[in-house]
Amino acid sequence: MNKLTIADLDVRGKRVLLRVDFNVPLNENHQVSDNTRILAALPTIQYLLNGGARLIILSHLGRPKGKPAEEFSLRPVAEILGDILKQQVFFSPALLGPVARTAIDCLKDGDCLLMENVRFYPEEEKNDVQFSKELASLADLYVNDAFGTAHRAHASNEGVTRYFDNAACGFLIEKELTYLEGLLKSPEAPFCAIIGGAKVRDKIHVIGNLLIKADDILIGGGMAYTFLKVQGRGIGNSMVDIESTDLVKHTFAEAARLGKTIHLPVDHVIAESFSNEVPTQIVENDIPDGYMGLDIGPKTIANFLSVIEKAKTVFWNGPMGVFEMDHFQQGTFSIAEGMASSSAVTVVGGGDSVAAVNRIRKADAMSHVSTGGGASLELLEGKKLPGIEALAEKENGA
Q1: Does residue 396 belong to any structural domain of this protein?
Q2: Given 153, 172, 191, which residue is the final one in a domain?
């Protein structure tokens, strides 16, 4: 991780523009129902405030399609952030113009101001040059700590950096890059990658890239049935991504060439329909017609856990089954439990995997839980993330 960080900046008395990811869920009363993303940004926010910065925070919330919408206002976030920080967090209903300027001019060292949703402006997602320049004019320094949007080239995380000499990353992005890039560059062996979820096409390139470093790939979730079908197994009415079968064949061939092992389910929890109300049964090997696989079975869980137990590095993205339903959650929760009890470096990425880990309260037992599903996948595919590439490098690799 050779990007400039906030630890390299002198922030006292400076107006610091901080991009965070406060895209948090709100309940029917327009109150924050999950503050995980707010807590993830706290180390950076507190560091800047304690350092005497005049902090101006930018974020998006939801998809307001370039125009103001009350249900996507960040005002409730300002209130909960103030409660967490135990200080007043000022709120500006405008991002630019006289109202915003007045709010910024009133800031003192150690003050915090949250601006209204950047996606209320269509120029944000268009990465508009003039809009980017106007955002940059609000501050003396720029810090990006919104890893969840790092794979998007938007004005508040990419365009704005062109007008700062030392655009830096916050502690969250620094941690994300340290762990995720570490998986690709220097993971301690044996390295086990667990990939689940529904669609093969969403993750097949991640699998291909991880094969270079990983010793074992464990495949679960809906995508496993496409892999099994390619092997000639009966999958009944289980979901299959027909368009990705050639990619799966190539993945098998590449694994064989590299001497890597792809582990697939050997038994399944099946039902006649996608429902928590129908009877279930466990079958080994082929799934009969009229039934669909909705979770990995106990033998597969044992096989997967034995691989995890021997690993020194474990990465997990994607559930093993329909864990939202009680009948099909055992595989996913068992993987989470196995990782939590492991002494390996454990990294969890992806919304559903993170949700599962949080649901059984095992997040604190992991080495790192990523805050950016799409961003983490693209990084692990080997893609460049615009929001990261735009940040300044440390001088001379220092």
Answers
A1: no
A2: 172
Q: How many CB atoms lie within 10 A of CB 343?
A: 8
Q: How many domains does the chain have?
A: 2
Q: Are strands 292-296 and 267-271 parallel, antiparallel or unpaired?
A: antiparallel
- CATH number of the domain enclosing 287: 3.40.50.1260
- Close Cβ partners of 355 (under 8 Å, ≥ 6 residues apart): none
72 in any annotated domain:
yes
CA distance 322 to 277: 13
Treating both helix axes as pointing N-terminal to C-terminal, what angle do 171-185 and 36-50 enclose, rounded to 10 degrees? 120
Residue numbers annotated as active site: 37, 199, 351, 374
277: which residues sit within 8 A by CB, 6+ positions away? none
Tell me how far the alpha carbon of residue 109 is from its chain's centroid: 32
Here the tokens at position 18 are: 């901080």
Task: Check if the beta carbon of residue 287 is closer than 8 Å to that of residue 270.
Answer: yes
Q: What is the pLDDT along the chain (398 residues), one digit of tens a residue?
A: 689 999 999 999 999 999 999 999 888 888 898 888 999 999 999 999 999 999 999 999 999 999 999 999 999 999 999 999 999 999 999 999 999 999 999 999 999 999 999 999 999 999 999 999 999 999 999 999 999 999 999 999 999 999 999 999 999 999 999 999 999 999 999 999 999 998 888 899 999 999 999 999 999 999 999 999 999 999 999 999 999 999 999 999 999 999 999 999 999 999 999 888 899 999 999 999 999 999 999 999 999 999 999 999 999 999 999 999 999 999 999 999 999 999 999 999 877 898 899 999 999 999 999 988 889 999 999 999 999 999 999 876 44
Q: Do 249 and 168 share a domain, yes or no?
A: no
On whether the CB atoms of residues 327 and 268 are closer than 8 A, the answer is no
**Do residues 102 and 210 share a domain?**
no
Do 57 and 167 fall within a single domain?
A: yes
Strand 191-195 versus strand 216-219 pairing type: parallel
Q: Residue 74 belongs to what domain range? A: 6-172
CB count in 10 Å sphere of residue 174: 21
- Surface-to-core class of residue 86, CB atoms within 10 Å of its CB (0-12 exposed, 13-18 middle, 19+ buried): exposed
Q: 198 and 343 share a domain? A: yes
Residues 208, 156 share a domain: no
pTM of this structure: 0.91
Residue 397 lies in a domain: no
